[in-house]
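Researcher: Last one for today. Full complex below.
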Amino acid sequence: MVWSFITSMFRLAKRATSIREMEASLARNERIFRSSHGYGYFDWDLANKRILWSGGYWRYLGYSEDDAEKISFSAGYYDYVHPDDVHRLREIVHKLLKSETLIGEAIYRVRRKNGGYVWTEVRADTTRDDKGWVTHINGIALDISKQKQIQQALLVSEERHARIIEASNDGIWEWVVADKGFQFTRRCWEHLGYNDTSEIMDLNQAPLEAWRERMHPDDLKRFDKILGAHIRQQGPFDVEYRIRGKNDKWFWIRARGKMIFNEHGEPVRMSGSNMDITELKLAEERVLKAKDQAEHANQTKSEFLSSMSHEFRTPLNAILGYSQILTLDKQLSREQKLHVQEITRAGDTLSRLIKDCLDLARIEAGYLSFIYKNVKPTQLIEYCLTLVKKQAASRAISLSFDPVEFANFSLNTDQTRLEQILLNLISNSVKYNRERGRVNIICTIVDDSYFRITVQDTGKGIPLHRQSHIFQAFNRLGEENSTIEGSGVGLVITQRLIQHMGGRIGFSSEEGVGSRFWIDLPLQSSLNDRLIGSQDSAINDDAVPELLCTSPRRLLYVEDSLTNQRMMQHLLSRYPQIHLELANDALKGLFYARTERPDVIIMDINLPSMTGYEALEVLQADLATAHIPVIALSANAMSHDVEKGLQAGFMHYLTKPLELRRLIEVLNQHL
Ligand code: ADP
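Model: Here's the assembly. Have a good evening.
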């Protein structure tokens, strides 16, 4: 009895414990359900048309206890579903009830209390009675908005990529290394002219095979080399190649790609793009061809100029040479002297014009060399003034320049070029001046770093609307039909020269009042270098230059032109100490040189059968003649001709028309 009491008490206690455990478990589940905001658990009792909800799902959607009745009424549930999703949801439920599916899965939007929808995924199972009728549908509902958002973003991103690729006109390809799979987008084939898929299919080949077969064999090798290097991780994959497309037409493709490697460094997958660069390549070819043609044209132009210069200078040499001889002739009458002066003047003008055109051509072509040395600018200005003195006096124009302040000042510059610049500015200030006008030249230091020479005149000035054209070649600013001589290139040459010399040029002008042109020459170290060398040879007078040697000397002149030979004879006839020997071709000259060993040889360049260069080579190679100074005298007078001559070994390179003064200077050095 006692025992049965104890055991029944024990049983009761045990049952009480398991009830407490159950209650605790229920409470625990309830807590979990309530805290699971995005989740809802439901049990849909079909007989009673009630849905029993637990979990935090509805609270999460903003509904309160007050809404519990409505939510639990199964017929009203569809009111909470997005209108676009209701039909689909009904169908799923229907299939579940008809046992067409065992497990129901649905994704649809459920309305929040405050508007807006939450994407919800529902998974449900059924409970059936003995006859197989569904009595309960139960399951879980959860918020999948985040996944939906990600999915949506992915979709947008994919669409964006597709649009970019579409817009870029690039073809895309992918190569999966493991299964040797290769995929091209349609655009890759469109690049080759295949617009119809059936045409591509007709190729009846694996795409990669079909592609490689069409590649230009020369480019295929390079392609494989670059690809191999990329796979060995030794460089980017970026290659241009030719490929044969539809109707055997050749196309250019630029392919770029990147290989993905696994953790062992093995290649896994390579993706890349193809760009159709056919048009680009054709344009490149056209540009290269045009460049070749332009270079060829430039070469032809330069050869033409060089030969034109030669052709002009040869007769000019005779004209100016003989007028020099005549000028020195004491027996000429006054009138004859005036005629000779006219010939000299016209010859000089022609010579200057040729020189201007050639200078401009040379500057434009970039051939120009400068020889820098210490030059006294004031002396150069004075020299230029002597050259325009007569012209100025003829129209009573006064020239004023006070050299005192900078008398001993010297600049490191190219004397010949500076002379050319100054002469152009000063002669313009005279040419375009009025009768009884004035020209004033002023030297100043500007910005502590430039030596400025200003040439001021009281001439007609330049109209404002023409001033912007002043540095245009062959533009004479309305002076084309005037009696003032000119070609319209002087200022352009001046500007280019001064720029090459590191300087600058500027002007101001007022119509009817006058013009001011100035040039700035960089000082560099010139300011500290006020002592000049002895090389100022520019100052000239009309006297016969003096030949320093007085004892007899022998000079060989190798020249095929009789006119030039005679001219040299006349020029040197006033120096009795010179015995001139003439040879009208190189061979005769060489023979004389070897047998008579003259003190100096003057050599023409363009000689029949053997050129002056070839003759020089023979002279230099022969011990008997190697010591004799050889001076070139040629009508090939471009700066590159001079450079070439000096490089070949001529001691000097004199150009035609020959200046007596220059010839004597050179002879003084060697005799
Ligand atoms: P040109 O051989 O014609 O003198 P330039 O190049 O030296 O060529 O000068 C170009 C033009 O600028 C001249 O034709 C002239 O119209 C104008 N010009 C140059 N210098 C002056 C000046 N000092 N006064 C007025 N006009 C000038």
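The longest strand covers residues 117-128. The chain has 19 helices and 22 strands.
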